[in-house]
Fold each of these.
Amino acid sequence: MNFITENLDIAMFLVLAAALLRGYPVTFTLAGVATIFAGIGALLGAFDTALLGALSQRLFGIMTNQVLIAIPLFVFMGIVLERSQLAEELLEEMGRLFGSMRGGLAVSVVVVGALLAASTGIVGATVITMALIALPAMLRNGYSKPLAAGTVCTAGTLGQIIPPSTLLIILSEVMSSAYQQAQFEQGKFSVETISVGQTFSAALLPGLVLVMLYILYILALAWLKPDRAPAMRREVAEPVSTRQLLRVLLPPIFLIVAVLGSIVGGVATPTEAASVGAVGALLLATYRRDHDSRGASLLAIAALAGIVVLASSTSIRLQRSDADVGVWLLAALGAGLVAVVAWGIWRAVRHAAREGYLGVVNTRTMSVSSMIFGTIIGASIFSLVFRGLGGDKRIEHLVDAMPGGATGALVFVMVLIFLLGFILDFVEISVILLPIVVPALIVMGHDPIWLAVLIAINLQTSFLTPPFGFSLFYLRGAAPSEITTGDIYRGVIPFIALQAIGVSLIWLVPGIATWLPSVMFGH
Amino acid sequence: MMTDWAERLDAVNRWCGLTVRWLALAMVLLQFAIVIMRYLFGVSYVFLGEGVLYMHAALFMLGAGYTLLVDEHVRVDILYSRADEAGRARVNVAGAVLLLIPSILLLLWVSWPYVRNSVSILEGAISVGGIQASFLLKSLIPAFCLLLLIQGVACLLRDLARLERRQ
């Protein structure tokens, strides 16, 4: 009997893994398994049901979390951009730009993946679009199937490591509270926190390092084994004009500079920047889709850019009593720009409603948010019961008992996250495991921001690890039938190895992660 | 018969989802307005920020049932995608009976005193200058449970009907 009550936490985890495999929605599987084990634990006297009282407060905490509000706004922005066919055009132009060199099509997929990651950050949409457009193009040109599949899968997951991303927002929130807890344990009472801006800026260079690693790998492979990644035939690869290139590159670059720049620069919070990005995306989508009145859309976009410049260079304080004529003139200029943008938004919304995609964007934003937050809720119910059954103590002991001190403990946690990544998604790992292990790691002396980046790359890899990597599912759903699941699995293995190299690089050279936040935020 | 009831129950979440989804656009626009006011004119109001928060919370709490209706809660579909209609129906029946419905009932039960206390005193703002209605925010918890329960039962009825048809 004792054996059972002492090992309920392990049983709970095994049952979760088995239940997830059946395919019932993850959210309710997490909550349901927790409910069953809370019941069993209560009957056997191993679980204190009073703990469940904390659930309401936890739920309220999730609803009122200021940081997480950025998620639906970024989702909205991403879905609008997806609807504007930005990805399709980028793939086409980049394919023409790089196609005529060996491995060029695969390189263009990685570059487009990185651009989309920095402007939208939705893994599923990116993988599906690339699977529908780039994958057939690569196969037509005689690329090896595993290489083509692996490249598309991996490039799609860049959305999670290159900011802005849902993964980094949730991770930042979890790391920040773990950091605070660690400082309390160390007896510090003026605690520091970690902002999403810091996490974003920390992940930026490592994300680019990964992009470079993928590209180097593809080029090396194409050079050593040309038959796996041949160049496009000349007559197919017509050269691309600078004008065309600028036309497709400017919109994402404009959004990346405005949104990412303001967050990483510490000017705006992610929520604020996301709303500007979402409005910008609406205006851009209208510019790209409504061919009859491009001038009007362009005017609104220019006005929005004007507002960004004006707002970042001056501050018009109308509430101050010493406001003079100059301030009022600036305010009038600002009001004029706002009027133009408001008019642009009105036109964009009307156009989107007429074309019928406004409803789709709203519905998708709602269902993606419900899915993400549902998983957070399910995972926090699971984590509450798991802790109640003593699972947190068991893991803490394991971390403390690891030989090799701080480094040994970190290696253990990284391996644990990697292994859990085979069966769980980043949300569950962040909500269930990280609050248990991260405070101990920080107390041992690891830098929280550096730690966040290492964990982020590890979690990004969980999208790739068979059998449960979400990127693999999306590709499977959208790939032509000549690509077998075996091709996909074989294709991602080298990229998983590249992820490991990326983690090692950042481990050995922490500056890759910590330099930018230290310059921007003085951490 | 069972599918008739399932469709009647579906209608609740369809209506709710298709109404609530407009909060997505609304929160984008309100947040944008807040940014303009703050960075361009240096004015800010706590209650506007909380307005975005209320919309955000309502969006995912009241949208959860609709998301279940359109089957967009993420699944680990390595086996599920290969299963036939009956196999999927069996997974969904078992999931609804063993996982979804019990956990939602538990959540409803443990959160009830918390929500009732808040509503009975019409609990005010989260922070000074905010919207005087955090009891509405807390009421989202039972609403979330109720919508999921309705949709859980609707899906259960439809899956049972599917299994019955096959026999």
Note: The radius of gyration of chain A is 24 Å.
Amino acid sequence: MSAQAAPGDKPLGQSPLASVLPVAVLFTATACFLLPLWYLFVASTKSQGDLTTTAGLWFSDMQFGTNVADTVTRDGGIFWTWLLNSLLYAVGGAAVGTVIAAMAGYALSKYAFRGREVVFNTILAGVLVPATALALPIFLIFAKVGMTNTYWSVLLPSLVSPFGVYLARIYITSSVPDALIEAGRLDGAGEYRIFFGLVIHLLKPALVTIFLFQFIVIWNNFFLPLIMLTDRKLFPITLGLYTWNSQALQDPTLATAVLTGSLLSVVPIIIAFLMLQRFWRSGLGAGGVKG
Amino acid sequence: MSVQTANRATAAATATPSRAQRRSERRAIIGFLAPFGTLFLLFYLLPIGYSFVRSFFVTERDGAFGPARDAWGGLSNYAQAISDPALLSSVGRVLLFGVVQVPVMLIIAMLFALILDSSLARLKRFFRLSYFVPYAVPVVIGTIVWGFLFTPGLGPVADFFPVDFLGDGWVLWSIAIIVTWTYAGYNMLIMHSNLQAIDRDIYEAAHVDGATNWQIALRIKIPLIRDAVILTGVFSIIGTLQLFTEPQVLRSISTSISSTYTPNLLVFTAASGNAYNYAAALSFLLAAATAVLSFLFLKFSERWAQ
Amino acid sequence: MGAVLVAALSLAACGTSGPEPASTACARSSGKVTLSFWSWVPGMDKAVDMWNAENPDIRVELNAVAGGNQGTYQNMFNALKANTEPDLAQVEFDMLPSFRLQQGLRDISKCLEPDAGDRFIGFAWDQATFGGEGVFAIPQDTGPMAMFYRKDLFERYGIQVPKTWDEFRVAAEEVHRKDPSVYLTSFPQRDVGWFEGLAWQHGASWFNTEGSTWQVSVGDRPTTEVADYWQDLLARHLVTPLQGFSTPWTKALADGKVLTWISAVWGNSTLSTNVPSTTGKWAVAPMPQWSGNGPSAANWGGSTTAVLRGSEHPYEAAKFALWLNTDPKSLELLNRSGGLYPATKDGIELPFLKKPVEFYGGQHIFDVFAEAAGQVKGGFAWGPTMTQTNAALADGFGKALAGDATLTDALAAADRETQTAMRLQALEVKIR
């Protein structure tokens, strides 16, 4: 949307306060929202001693290089392992999860069969079941089959995105014309070919939305890896930093590692997110209410 | 013509499919549903069922240190849960939290969505993105950083405000600050997207009728994005009842967060204490309560819509 | 949905939740052996390297985990449940009963010589063997307590080093009179182990078993007396409720606002690391005593090396655990890197503990702790749900510090919550 005055809005200059106040509010809010990230940035440049003695919001002496070196080499370079694990769980998990959710949404949208609505409503009910309520029984089930503390034990549950199926179904229903599918069938293409070759190209915004949504869900899923994983080499970055943070009382040098590590892991995500957020918005918008 | 209209036309025009066509369609349905369906069965339905079944068992043992066995306990886990003071106080706490934090956050989100939607704001993209950034930060990391901010001597927030953020009276609201920081921008974005989809001619008509921008906001915009507000409301309620990550991460620096601070912390504590059957009962109760509350909220907001 | 329930029922039904009790036989393994070991002591890797270099056939692999109460005990219990536990684990003394209750510990008495226990300090061996029922862990380090005090500020305020708790109270009054912003010591809300040590010193006995019934008495007479004593000091503002190990607490120490810290031997490095500006000004004296039955001391903390239930090489694991905690080179290494104070009678007499410590004005501080180690009473047992007991005490202390209750109320609450937690574990338990 452009910043020009849109038709229907009152002309500017009606009241100076009315035009200044909202902007002031917005700027103040921006400062509040970005404050923690600014603090994170500043704090990761400080040495451990300076953390407690210098003002929080401005730099002292620049130790960023040292801090980064310390963070990535500590404990045998486990920081890299943690980052790669997170990539596996979150990117891998969300990617596969998106594809299978789209497939399920497609089936529920474009094929009529008995019990379709029951299936859909069951999946929808799944949206209301929080991941934390499932973590404990999933752990107990994996314990029974002796598969706790493995990559699969965190990855497999992460592939399930009921909300993704819901989004996919709505989006497909409203954006994929039956005529396209019919045309494909008339051309002799198989059902899978139609989906993966034709339909999926129309789904890009929805796919990105589902991917980002599931990515965030997996990223933020703390309870499951917390009770499932005991081997530090399997931890995602969130669990790894949490572990370091809990030990910071005994080992104060960990504070800088935690802060620097947080910065290093957060910056790429933020950048990726900002680049992709327009997809996400248009995807949600299409599935949302029209005026 | 919208896709739906076109689809109806196509359906009318298409001949009924052949037998072979239907067989291949059936195979396709199974094929498309199977991957998600199997995983959904394994990691949603089965765990809920397992949790449900486990909740009817209790633990028994002989001797002071004897091995434990499971025995049928009927509803005793549930009876114990209902009279468990730890559970009751944790539920009360999250309800209090929810009643305050969710409306405040949604109002903030709505306010900013409305401001950004009006042309009074320049630099819209910049503001939108900066409010959204916290959502991209993993909750664990965000809480760790806020923990530093709240620690006297380390964080500017603690040093600037004369409040003991991590102390008994305030820590719940410090958690509320963290949750609001994380999700307000996300909720705002949802509302804003929906606002942007509204046909602006409606506003022009309203202006012609003499409505002020305020009245347009209250009477037209908000009702039109009702669904988005409801959606964000439901997810916020679900999130509130599940509160776990923020208090758990802050436990290492705040002495005021007990091991049973929120219902999920209680589940975690029970499981850590190896009282798995009781933890399963609690887990199930929590999931059921969340579902019921969300459902009620949806029903209630449907009535608002009328 | 029906299919799901059937599946769930069959999953729940197959197998009981507890395994067979661990066999007490101790067979040697043949060939090369690899042992997994979870520990959080800094520098443990060097000790393990030392062992591996001298014992090529018994290789120990260390998993450097977070502290026990920072989630590692939870992980260990989960591992036990999933049968993926390591061979050896670091377990603090107060957690041994919890592990034993979950059938996690292996009785290695048959893996050791009958007199192996003589090497260890009395109370440590007592707790590791549950009063002689079996050898469930090898003591690693202990935390005998004494009083760290600011020698220079004692002189300034004209305080004599208090030898009894009565004298301690008088000294607190004196200090507070001379300067209301200065306190003799602090009362930490969350250092429950500190309070447990104090109760232990006075003869408390919180957990006892009579046959298969447990008796809980956190609020027994000695503990109540200790609680009342401190309640009095708190009510009269003679001690400050700062939380130990916190930034405000270290700041108060640096500023000379808190004059003493009754703490364990490992606290000596806490002070020197966190309050370096006060070097040379501290000294160590024995804990104040209750008048009555001879000198007694207290213990705070300490841990063991336990051989866990599922280990397939108990003989080798026991051998390593014994070496780790008795070999002089290992003890010196663990002391230097990890700040561990030995649990063996010979260990506390080793040369590296006989040196003067500059932070304490050149005093041979470890002599004080060695004497204290010998004075710690035996017969103090921990309960099988110490996590909950400690949490209840900490929460109760919090209320007391806020003025909403007394410390004695916290004891009663701890009794009740311990009983609830133990009943959840299907134990028969009475509050005495």
Note: Chain A touches chain B through 114 residues (CB under 8 Å).
Amino acid sequence: MRIVVAEDVMLTREGIVRLLRDAGFEVVGQAEDLDGLMRSVVLDRPEAVVVDIRMPPTHTDEGLVAAQQIRTQHPDVGVLVLSQHVEPSYAMRLIQDHPERVGYLLKERVFDAAILVDALRRIADGECVIDPTIVSRLLGRQRREDPLSALTKREREVLALVAEGLSNQAVASRLFITERTVEAHTKQIFEKLGLDVDPTSNRRILAVLAFLRSPVP
Amino acid sequence: MGPRVSFTKPVGVPGALLVVSAVTLGIVTLLVVPRSNLGFTTHAGASPAAALADFAAGLGLVGAGLAAWLLRPGSGSGLLMVSLAGLAWFAADWVGWEGGPPIARSVAMAVAPFYLAFVVHLVMASPGGRLRSRRQRLAAGAVYAAAAIVSVGRALIRDPFLDPYCWSNCRDNVFLVSAQPGIARALDLMWILVSLIVGLLVAALAIRYLIYATPTARRTMSPILVPAVLLGLAIAAHALALLRQPLESPQDAVFSAIFQVGAWAAAALAVGVGLVVVRSWRARVTLARLASDLGEAPTPGSLGPVLARATGDPSLIVVYPLPVSGRHVDASGTTVDLPTAGVGRAVTPIVRNDTEVALVVHDAAAVDSEQLRMQIGAAARLAVENERLQAEVLAQLNDLRASRARVVQVGDAERRRLERNLHDGAQQHVLALSYDLRLARVGAESAGSPELTALLTSAEAEAQTAIDDLRELAHGIYPAVLTEAGIGPALWTLADSAPLPVELGGLPDDRFPEAVERTAFVVASEAIDAASHLGSTHVEVRMIRDDDRLVLEVKGAGPGPFVHLADRVGALEGQFTAEAGLIRAEIPCA
């Protein structure tokens, strides 16, 4: 798979590039800032980009801005945003407009080749990838009346994987159950939580994340 | 009513005598002189129009001068010149008194030249009544000297009978010692030249002043200076006419016209002087009344505006010197720069016990410094003192506020810098370390070294813990989301990881100034922590924008003490209250 890497800290960038090459990806371009990344996307025609959220010029949210632009202008190109921040707002902002072919992972996650490869494959397949730390932070949120207590243990596992962006098929293989069972679980979960979204659509992840964040159910 | 303030100085016997004699002289001139000739020896006798102009000028000048002198205590003898100018003006009529006593005509002849000197003195000394610069005194002195030379010279050596150009008096000179027609003629010519030059100079200087003065000064001075221009031109025109035609005649159309223009200009000058005097007298009365009012019930901050109204100078302000820093502040404690000299602004110090307690900054021409100093120094003492003390306290308060806000801002900026440094430095290095450890562990595994593998696995876990700790640390120092996305998203993140249920409500999407967002965040964060230590079941955080303030309420926390939070909110001039169960912060955000 053709990949462009954008990261302003050289040490980290080189680490990521080496890792991707070792894992069998083809790194076709490298960039240090937002402009360089956008040029590279046009010139090097990648299938996905791996981008640091914080880059010059402002060192704030360039990665999210890049993702927004790339998803709008080059819908075929996937975007994996790497971040130091356990920040659900950023993850939700990323999937807000285009809930497919995007991912938000904590930086240290990518040094696990298996996770990196899995994330890029899923993005290439059109799925979303949300870091498990963020999902567990949302699931672990303190609530006065916890609506999640209505769920069974298995349903909570399914919900967490759905929130991480996994497809039903991926959830099934992760939990060693059939896809039909996963479908039944998601239908049940969405009913129990009162989520008015088609549990098979790709917008379900956004609905789940928003639900997990809502003030009082 | 406050203490009675006297606006006039006692007139006394000499003053009364002067008034009576001046008015009598005017009336006698009016009744006697014009009827005594057929209109050949005085302009006033030539036509009713000329007579009217003559008396308007003479009586106007006498009256205005006396009024000024009586209404303006301590403003110098300059205004008396106006009256003397009026008397000298009438001298021309007495010279032409055909059939009158020779002594009267002779004295009048000697007095007449001083009219020019009095006019120059009067115009240059306006509006204050004093010649202000050395150059002015020199110029006035020179004209007086020239007038004296002509006056004495004519008296001693001019025999009117031998003068080919005599017209108003061809008979009488009781002072004559030795008739010298040639020298007398030379004196006449010199006087004509002096009149020409002085007339043009008066007009030019008056025009120059009108052009370059501040608007306030122009408004004040134009009633005097506009007639002065006309009068100067008339004097110069008269001199030119005499050079062309040495024998003056009231019947001549040119001389008659020049005379009437000059007379009406002098009359207008008199009216102008009267206007200025009355205006400044009224200002002084207001000022004095104000001073006594202020003496009774001074409200700090009111002195400047009231003085500005009383003096008619809207640009007037009162400032107070600060003892230590040497700065100047207004009544609200705001620092004020004193005007530099020479831009039409004047600074009048109010001195008490040899110390400057206040400075009045005003238009140099519109307000008389001396007058202001006297009035304020005497009666408005309490007001000045009150206002000065308050200004000092307010200035200190302003300084303190500014320094508090700066301390908070510097602290925040430092925290952001630390967070940025952590992110770009330590966090990246630990990431790299964790990556290297992973590579090493994979290598050890394939090399079949279980001990090394175990060691590296544990090191990897340590590195991950360090990554997590660093992340928490960086977030605690300064949450990046606060800068990047604002207070709303930052509070959501706070709620995500809070140790107890946090309900958020009414979070605005707006962005606010950095210090405001940071302060709101710190308040919410510490209130939630405190609630958690208190064992609350949950907290509710509400935030609303109320016009120019951001209002943050945390229910379920409190009552504190939260000295640190109160300080922080106070540094932004906000309100912080903490009662049992409710913390509320109002932060100005406009």
Note: The radius of gyration of chain A is 17 Å.
